[in-house]
């Protein structure tokens, strides 16, 4: 398994949650616990450094993570790649970044372990979960060296800012996960009761 010192975790909580009426989605309760805390719990066994990408309620997120990054110009409001860009200056000796969305509270440590094992076997590529419903691009491991080398240039040239375009640019491999139920993605208030 990859050493905890070699992996940073970036949890994406900087979106606008328009389908939830603009609330701070990561703080919404699922089974009595904020969504983001479920994700942190799954990720903690694999890292000594958790970073949250957030654009509101920064003081709250600082209580949960080792660091909080805020979208930086000129890449505010472009989504997950904006969060990755904001994290670039704080990356040091880590080999990989495990990125996770704040809104999949059922994700398991086993799924993340599979991702990290695949990354260890082919460390220069991006590895991302894939289920029977397709790619799950916000559950991915990225090589830090390639990220530092390529992200700014990619953003300068990109016409669209979807993460899969960037992953394909770097070289991406899927890690099949057969437990689709773990990828429950909470996008609406009523889904908090599932």
Automatic annotation (TrEMBL):
One MF annotation (Gene Ontology) recorded for this entry: metal ion binding
Catalytic reaction annotation: Mo-molybdopterin + GTP + H(+) = Mo-molybdopterin guanine dinucleotide + diphosphate
Entry GO terms, CC: cytoplasm
Enzyme Commission no: 2.7.7.77
Residues binding Mg(2+), per UniProt: 103
Domain MobA-like NTP transferase intervals: 9-154
Regions annotated as coiled coil: none
UniProt xrefs under InterPro entries: MobA-like_NTP_Trfase, Molybde_CF_guanTrfase, Nucleotide-diphossugar_trans
Record protein name field: Molybdenum cofactor guanylyltransferase
Function statement: Transfers a GMP moiety from GTP to Mo-molybdopterin (Mo-MPT) cofactor (Moco or molybdenum cofactor) to form Mo-molybdopterin guanine dinucleotide (Mo-MGD) cofactor.
Subunit structure: Monomer.
Pfam family, one: NTP_transf_3
Domain of life: Bacteria
């Amino acid at each position: 398994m990859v050493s905890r010192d070699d992996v940073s975790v970036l949890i994406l909580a900087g979106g606008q949650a328009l389908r939830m009426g603009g609330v701070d989605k990561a703080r919404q309760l699922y089974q009595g616990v904020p969504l983001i805390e479920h994700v942190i719990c799954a990720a903690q066994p694999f890292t000594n450094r958790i970073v949250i990408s957030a654009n509101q309620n920064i003081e709250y997120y600082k209580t949960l993570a080792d660091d909080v990054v805020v979208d930086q110009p000129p890449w505010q409001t472009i989504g997950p790649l904006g969060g990755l860009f904001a994290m670039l200056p704080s990356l040091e000796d880590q080999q990989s970044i495990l990125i996770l969305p704040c809104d999949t509270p059922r994700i398991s440590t086993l799924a993340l372990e599979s991702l990290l094992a695949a990354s260890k076997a082919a460390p220069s590529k991006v590895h991302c979960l894939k289920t029977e419903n397709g790619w799950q691009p916000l559950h991915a491991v990225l090589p830090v060296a390639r990220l530092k080398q390529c992200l700014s240039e990619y953003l300068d040239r990109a016409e669209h800012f979807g993460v899969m375009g960037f992953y394909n640019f770097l070289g991406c491999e899927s890690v099949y996960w057969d437990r689709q139920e773990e990828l429950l993605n909470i996008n609406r208030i009523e889904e908090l009761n599932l």
